[in-house]
From TrEMBL:
Transmembrane segments: 24-46, 101-126
InterPro entries attached to this UniProt entry: NAD(P)-bd_dom_sf
Molecular function, one GO term: oxidoreductase activity
PANTHER family: PHOSPHATIDYLINOSITOL-GLYCAN BIOSYNTHESIS CLASS F PROTEIN, PHOSPHATIDYLINOSITOL-GLYCAN BIOSYNTHESIS CLASS F PROTEIN-RELATED
Name of the protein: Uncharacterized protein
Keywords, ordered alphabetically: Membrane, Oxidoreductase, Transmembrane, Transmembrane helix
Domain of life: Eukaryota
UniProt organism field: Obba rivulosa
Length: 256
């Protein structure tokens, strides 16, 4: 299994394609950062009949994306206005879903305050198990391994949190995986020369982690490009760090 080093940057030929995605009728999903290139996953989800909420800060941006996706797939995604910069705004965005909805997949492609978003939607995620053929609900967090300081710290914490979600909710049927989507020329990487630009293939890694039944055996783990199990830095599996972070996060939102 590739470890946390540059081998994750060398692409293997994917053994999974969108033809392997099962029918997703009755399944409800949320994709954050959904208007960015990396979230081409939405196309495949719609093509396989999922009901997809596209989360973004910008209503206008999502409306354009929804229109384009309708032309491409014949299916209509739904808008979820979401700004992850602020806990009150996250709470407002999840208000209407918390009790009544049943989500079987959240694809977390932004990296900020996803823990709180997921925590608020936990009841809706647990209800989503019913609609999923393998009896599980999933949260897939895009992350990576790396050396840039602040950015990598936030990605590191994403992986730790995902691992802790698996630990705390795994026995209730929640699968939490983190995903290194690969190095991609998206808005985030627009100033870095020479990057690969395989956005479509990157979406496959996220879809594989999010949809295939066999991934349920790898709860808390890390998926890497393209479509492989990998390992993140050893510290992300450290339960002392994980529990400390979990307590810290609970503390931050206890009065919200
Ligand atoms: N690109 C790569 O090579 C690469 C490699 C490894 C990991 N990743 C990870 O993959 C994820 C997506 O990367 P990307 O390259 O697609 O980035 P991107 O092009 O910069 O897109 C990020 C998306 O995040 C959303 N966003 C930013 N701030 C937000 C906020 N406060 N609240 C809600 N949404 C917010 C934006 O959506 P709106 O503007 O619509 O709100 C934007 O579409 C990130 O977590 C990144 O760290 C990327």
């Amino acid at each position: 299994m590739p470890s946390c080093n540059t081998s994750q940057g060398y692409w293997a030929t994917p053994t999974f394609s969108t033809n392997d995605i099962p029918d997703l009728t009755w399944r409800v999903m949320i994709v954050t950062g959904s208007c960015s290139a990396i979230s081409l996953v939405v196309v495949a989800l719609l093509q396989h009949n999922a009901k997809v909420y596209m989360a973004s800060r910008s209503e206008k941006k999502v409306e354009v994306a929804i229109k384009n996706l309708k032309e491409l797939t014949g299916k209509e995604a739904l808008l979820l206005q979401l700004n992850l910069c602020n806990v009150a705004a996250i709470k407002r965005s999840t208000q209407e879903f918390r009790r009544s909805a049943a989500f079987s997949l959240v694809l977390l492609s932004v990296g900020l305050r996803h823990w709180y978003f997921t925590a608020l939607l936990m009841q809706a995620l647990l209800s989503g198990k019913e609609s999923s053929s393998d009896g599980h609900t999933r949260g897939i967090t895009t992350s990576k391994t790396g050396t840039q300081k602040l950015y990598s710290q936030s990605k590191f914490l994403n992986v730790v949190v995902s691992h802790q979600v698996a630990k705390h909710y795994g026995d209730q049927g929640v699968i939490a995986l983190s995903c290194n989507p690969g190095y991609l020329k998206t808005d985030l990487q627009r100033h870095i020369a020479g990057l690969e630009c395989k956005v479509v293939v990157s979406a496959l890694t996220q879809l594989w982690g999010g949809l295939l039944p066999e991934l349920a055996q790898h709860n808390g783990e890390f998926v890497i490009p393209w479509v492989r199990m990998g390992k993140c830095r050893p510290e992300t599996y450290d339960d002392v760090i994980g529990e400390q972070l979990w307590c810290y996060l609970q503390e931050q939102v206890k009065n919200t």
